[in-house]
Amino acid sequence: MKTYGVIMAGGGGTRFWPLSRKARPKQFLELSGKDTMVMDTARRLEQIAKAEDIFIVTSMAHREMTVELTKGVVSKDHVLGEPAARNTAACIGYAAMEILKKYGDGVMVVAPSDHFIRDEAEYKRVFERAVELAEETDSLITVGIKPTYPCTGYGYIKNKESAGKDYREVVEFVEKPDPETAHEYLVSGEYAWNSGMFVWKASVILKRFEELLPDIYECLVKIGDAMGTDDEAGVIDEIYPVIPKISIDYGIMERADRVLMLEGDFGWNDVGSFEALEEVYGTDENGNVIMSEAHTIDTTDCILYGTDRNRLIATLGVDDLVIAVTDDVVLVADKNRSQDVKLFVEGLSNTDKDKYL
Amino acid sequence: MKTYGVIMAGGGGTRFWPLSRKARPKQFLELSGKDTMVMDTARRLEQIAKAEDIFIVTSMAHREMTVELTKGVVSKDHVLGEPAARNTAACIGYAAMEILKKYGDGVMVVAPSDHFIRDEAEYKRVFERAVELAEETDSLITVGIKPTYPCTGYGYIKNKESAGKDYREVVEFVEKPDPETAHEYLVSGEYAWNSGMFVWKASVILKRFEELLPDIYECLVKIGDAMGTDDEAGVIDEIYPVIPKISIDYGIMERADRVLMLEGDFGWNDVGSFEALEEVYGTDENGNVIMSEAHTIDTTDCILYGTDRNRLIATLGVDDLVIAVTDDVVLVADKNRSQDVKLFVEGLSNTDKDKYL
Question: Could you give the CA distance from residue A145 to residue B8 in angstroms, rounded to a whole number?
Fold first, then answer.
């Protein structure tokens, strides 16, 4: 059976502003050091699926850029454009229908386009096992990340052993916890971080749509029926924007029975805010992450990121700052508030400064 | 008798880096809001001397720029270029000789090119009186600034009443004090800040050079003898670089007898570091000075200065910072260490980053 890669690249995250912009969301940035995050993701999936079987779903507005940025790995006609953002259930359903109708059933490895993986060999090992399991069992599989600290920024998956098996059974998906609860989760050993990475057959997930999200399934069938006809683009343009907005977690994962989990321990990070760059890059002897031409004096625990290597960031006597510099914006923020960077995006929207978004 | 204005614009200050650069020292910046500091100074002197009698002494490297920046007030041939920086005694002696030889004796009002004056009417009143006094008494006159707080960043002038007179007699010039001494100076009422502004006849100051700085005087005479001849430029190029380096304060003011002082109370500030911008511009309700396109969230007591109004400075949860942004450098410094900004200039000199100086 074929293995497909499906990269979800429709996000428009605001927590890396001003690096991420309306025209260039986070997944199109070189945040993890090698290439753009979406290209790094494609290369990672290429270890599990053939390049010709990798798909990317992104917004129509970013489709052309995505084709350009993943050239050499992903074929142009495998970059699917969404006419509107309708959350992850729609995105995954669309990809499943595209695969089933045009290329034949197979196991889909679904991955967000903007995560970081340190240990790619271990990642490959876990996902190859997930693909096997999906093929053998017709289950929905997710990869839960072994927690390394009581993180309050991720959702968790409660899970239990499956006697004599290498996989675990999902008990429930739970929301981001408060610090105390996060600590309990960590100590209990019964919780994993919800990474948003899934493995299943296209035919199996579409059956779950039919059972659990019939409204969405109906839309997907209309789109599927038009696939390969002259009406395809028109039907997608018409139907897609009215697909109910719901995440795959809420819509299917939390409600389906028999969801299996493999535990992953491969240095995963969702790169959810500037602070995450400390884990992605590591810090120098002063606790700084320096991704810029820089000259620092008495500077500790700061993150310096400049998009132009011909621009110098100079710091003196400062600690715990995020300094992010683009051609037209300089951000200086308390690192402990780097989650709040999205406030700028809210604050500048619909003002005379919205050109900076 | 004619009144001349003499602006000393030879400085190469480092405490406003990265705004001030080798190619564009502080006096050529628009730090006080209206125009460049040197042009503001010229306009201020124009209230006391005729525009056609205003001179500027600057380094040869900045002569052309100075002519350009003060066009409309200062005539091109009144902008004197120093082939080398030889401190203020040389600069003032050269201007005095130029005036005496080419334009005839008169009272020189000598002013640094990079200070800020809030109350220009009071400034005019004090200097007009100083000009009168210089003409009547053949004295060396300085304007001491009435201290408003126990500043440790300025030198002081100890002075005493002159019975029945509006001027005071200088007792001695003293160095920058420690905080305790500065407090004593303030309380005593016998000390004024040394502003580096002087008034005297060209002939009188040259006589003091002859008495107190004969080596320099000898150089000045050689230059004076060549003035108006074909050799002028050549002699200046040859002699000027070997004039002994000494400040007018050390060389003459502290050693001459009968130095008079007028007290000035006109909102003077030498704009010696970024912190001074708080006094020059005043702060907003959050204690910030914002000289840039900016969007601030939970930001207090910061100084934001951007040279390009199309570049946004965005701050979040920060206090007491100086953020100065040019096309190629972003400085983020603890405001309480803004005097130390010169460390960058030292640190970057003779490195592969000296293009940022």
Answer: 68
Of A269, A300, A317, the residue at which a domain comes to its end is A269
Instruction: Tell whether A209 and A175 lie within a shared domain.
Output: yes
Retrieve residue A50's tokens: 């053939």
pLDDT digits (tens, 9 = 90+) for B191-248: 999 999 999 999 999 999 999 999 999 999 999 999 999 999 999 999 999 999 999 9
Q: Which of B220, B241, B269 is the last residue of a domain?
A: B269
Angstrom distance (rounded) from CA B169 to CA B154: 19
Facing A328 at nearest CB: one of B312, B341, B343: B312
d(CA A119, CA A124): 9
Q: Are A19 and B314 within 8 A, CB to CB?
A: no
Using DSSP's 3-state secondary structure scheme, residue B204 falls into helix
- State the greatest distance between any 2 C-alpha atoms of chain B, in Å, as a whole number: 64
- CA-nearest of A166, A149, A168 to A157 is A168
> Using CB atoms, which residue from A318, A336, A353 is nearest to B295?
A353
CA distance B87 to A229: 84
Tell me which residues of chain B have a pLDDT lower than 50. none
If asked whether residues B253 and B217 sit together in one domain, one would say yes
User: Which range of residues forms the domain containing residue A213?
Assistant: 2-269
Classified as helix, coil or strand, A63 is helix
Residues B10 and B70 in one domain: yes
Residues of A at the B interface, defined by Cβ within 8 angstroms? 18, 293, 295, 297-298, 306, 310-318, 321, 323, 325, 327-334, 336-337, 340-341, 343-344, 347-348, 353, 356
Do B243 and B221 contact (CB within 8 A), yes or no? no
| Co-location of A53 and A190 in the same domain | yes
Q: What angle do CA A283, A285, A291 make, to 5 degrees?
A: 40
Residues 6 or more apart in contact with residue B292 via CB below 8 angstroms: B304, B305, B306, B309, B311, B312, B313, B325
Amino acid in position B279: E
Task: Tell me which of A25-39, A71-85, A117-131, A174-188 is least confident.
Answer: A25-39
DSSP letter assigned to residue A175: P
> Which positions ≥6 away from A213 have C-beta within 8 Å?
A89, A93, A244, A246, A251, A252
Chain B hits for A343, CB-CB cut-off 8 Å, are 297, 316
Question: What pTM was computed for the model?
Answer: 0.91
Shortest CB distance from B328 goes to which of A310, A316, A323?
A310
**Are B311 and A330 within 8 A, CB to CB?**
yes
The answer to whether the Cβ–Cβ distance between B321 and A332 falls below 8 Å is yes
Mean pLDDT (chain B, rounded): 96
Question: B172 and B254 in contact (C-beta within 8 Å)?
Answer: yes
Q: Which residues of B273-284 are buried (b: 16+ CB within 10 A; e: fewer)?
A: bbbbbbbbbebe
Same domain, B120 and B256: yes
Kindly provide the residue ranges of all beta strands, DSSP E only, lying in chain B, ordered along the sequence. 2-9, 54-59, 79-82, 106-112, 116-117, 140-145, 156-161, 168-174, 191-201, 259-264, 268-269, 289-291, 293-297, 303-306, 312-316, 321-325, 329-334
Torsion of CA B281, B282, B284, B289, to 10 degrees: 50
Domain total of chain B: 2
The domain that contains A156 carries what CATH number?
3.90.550.10
Q: What is the ipTM of this complex?
A: 0.91
Rounded to 5 degrees, φ, ψ at B176 are -55, 125
**Contact call for residues A250 and A92 (beta carbons, < 8 A):** no
